[in-house]
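In this notation, each integer encodes one residue's backbone shape. One such record reads:

___
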Amino acid sequence: LCVVFFFLGMEKVVVCPYKRPNALYRLICFPWAGGGTSQLAQWGKLFSSSVEVSSVRLPGRESRRKEPFAKDMATVVNEITSVLLKELQEKPFAFFGHSFGSYISFAVALHLKEKYGLEPFHLFLSGAHAPHSEAFLPIKTVSISDTKDEDVLKYIEILGGTPSELLQSEDVKEHLILTFREDLRVLQTLSFEKAERNIPFSCDITCFNGSEDKSHDVEAWHDLTSGDISFYELPGGHFYLLEPSNEIFLTKHITKCIENAGL
């Protein structure tokens, strides 16, 4: 019975359309605010047979639409960790997160390190400030409840990443606004204070950003690992990663990093 519950939890929280039980490495992807698993889970077909790709699905969307949204980052982290822990103990794993997903991947990685002594061998972070940087503070202080729906929608449209035909449907539009608000609420509960002389990670970190996106304080990620850190700017805005040419660059580059990790 326990195995059945574990499997159901796994299928609910982690989406892996291209299962590769013999893969040497796992890449776990974390989507952006308001996002689901459709784009990043499809990366599985772009990677070689040595990498199995999964995408995390949060409550309140897709097949979990009827579930209540998570209340805070700790809830999100605990759920993901409890479902993935056994898998992550079996073989080396890396995380990829975009925007809101970068912060979740960071929080999950930190929890795994502090509680279980487990660490991704590489963190791939996209479109995000380092969580202890001053540039992250405005995100934490914006008042979600005071923001009108049309302003949230305008912001989503400016960011891009949502096909305009989807926004023609009132139901889809409403649910997207709600999901975006709830994800922002979760993000605001991320609390991380960088302690003096304490470097939480030893893994390599790669940061990606769109050239037309606002600049992110990626330099501050240097403080968080004793491993190597590299930065790449790719053409496009906040959702540069949805451009097929950038997607090819990302998946090739991530593959190279994974295969050169010498594990």
